[in-house]
Amino acid sequence: MSDNHEAHAHHISSFTFLAWIWVGLLVFTAMTVFLADVQFSGSLGILVAMAIATLKAFLVVYYYMHLKFDSKVFSIMVGICFAVLAVVIFVTFLDYIFR
Amino acid sequence: MAQAAELHLTEAHAEHDEHRDDIGSKLGMWFFLFTEILLFGGLFIVYSVYRFKHAEAFATASAELDVFIGTINTLVLITSSMTVAMSISAIQRKKPRLAINLLWFTIFCAGVFMFNKYFEWGHKFDHGIYPGSSIFPGGSTAREAWQVTPSEVFAPAEGMFFVLYYLMTGLHGLHVIIGSIFIIVIIAKIKRGTQSHDNFAQHENAGLYWHLVDLIWIYLFPLMYLI
Question: Domain for residue A4, yes or no?
Fold first, then answer.
């Protein structure tokens, strides 16, 4: 779990650490299923579900896909990719909402 | 991948002077994953726009899906994601046997996932929920023969939900299959010793691909089953 290795030595994630991330993913999954049962009204429900999904996605990308331990270049690139997608979604909805 | 294999063939005799670029290899894999993210991203946009314009029909159609199976499949994929990550830790710690077993477990999870998907799709086909069926909008013209009343026929937007459902979960399922093949290749390479504790870039790339499969499902699950 210690993250203070020298810059390019390969970080080895411990099994315990990976299992804890798994527990986190399980908790978020349980949460999103439970909250969907509660039935938020319309757009709030979507917002909550997508927020939880994004938290889960962050856990997977940052820890399982090793972004936390890789060179920052990877984080920047992944960030740009998701930002492009977010912008495209945003602009598309600007069109549909204010049409 | 092909290039890497070629490189390995030409340089197999020169083990002490092997030219490798693990960072470059990972960078290339990520670039490929970006195209995957944008591919599914495009489909997510189509889904969101239709959902925005036909919220009620999408909610009705979505209610046909079995949240229980969806949740099981989510747990299965999350677990398989963990075991792939663990297998990379195992190979780094010079435990190839353990790494291989963890990868086989991942393949097992992929099998369970596809098995559930098979029954899920089959169940819907049995109920006539597929494009072109007698209850599908614009589907079979011989509705009288099927004794389908107009109220049983899906609204166009409900049909659209299932078109997107089959397209997106189908494309995702294809990725599950490809990811499994990728992992089987890695198992073979570990056995041959071409992936090992000091050379596991391809193993890591297979892991990245598998995590992407999980990542896409993380968004597909709430969009299709929950909201």
Answer: no
Q: Does domain B25-226 have CATH number 1.20.120.80?
A: yes
Counted domains in chain A: 2
pLDDT tens digits, A76-91: 999 999 999 999 999 9
Under 8 Å between Cβ of B93 and B213: no
Q: Which residues of B touch A78 (CB under 8 A)?
A: 30, 34
Residues A26 and A56 in one domain: yes
Q: What percent of chain B has pLDDT over 70?
A: 86
User: Is residue A5 one of the residues assigned to a domain?
Assistant: no
Q: A94 and A61 in one domain?
A: no
**CB A99 within 8 Å of CB A92:** no
**Parent domain of A90:** 71-99
The reply to whether A83 falls in a domain is yes
In A, residues 49-88, which contact B (CB 8 Å cutoff)? 49-50, 52-53, 56-57, 60-61, 63-66, 70-71, 73-74, 77-78, 81-82, 84-85, 88
Q: What is the three-class DSSP state of B53?
A: helix
B55 vs A89: CB contact, 8 Å cut-off?
no
- Per-residue pLDDT tens digits for B143-167: 555 566 666 778 888 889 999 999 9
Find which of A36-45, B137-146, B207-216 is predicted with most confidence, using mean pLDDT. Answer: B207-216
CA distance A9 to B155: 57
Contacts of B39 in chain A (CB under 8 A): none
Q: Phi and psi dihedrals of B144, rounded to 5?
A: -60, -45
Task: Return the closest-CA partner of residue B105 out of B94, B90, B124, B127.
Answer: B90
Question: How confident is the model over B10-34, as pLDDT tens digits?
Answer: 444 445 557 889 999 999 999 999 9
**Coil, helix or strand at residue B196:** strand
User: Does pLDDT of A54 surpass 90?
Assistant: yes
